[in-house]
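Quick one:
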Amino acid sequence: MPGIRSRLLRAFWAVDRMLGGEQPLTRTERFVAARHPVRLGVAVGACWTAFFTLLPGTQSADVVVGVAGGMFLGALSGFTARYLRARQHRLQRIRLRDGA
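Output:
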C-alpha cells in the first residue's frame, strides 16, 4: 500500500508540474493557502446555503439545492485550499533543497 500511495503522489505532482505548478504562488493563492481549509470550506458552504435558503419565496426544492450546493462548494473550496497549502509547502521544500 505505501508503494501505491507514493506512486500516486509522484504522478499527482508530475501533472502539477506540467500544468505550471513550479511557478510561485500568486498573492491570492498565498492568501487562500494561509487560511485553514476546513474553516474556509464551512464558510463558503454556509454562505451559499444561506443565500439559497433565505431568498424570499423559497420552496423546498430551493432548500435542497442550497444545502447540496453548499456542501459541494464548501468541499471544493476546502480541497482547493488544502491543495494550495500543500503546493506552497512543496515549493518551499524544493527551494530549500536547491539552495534558492
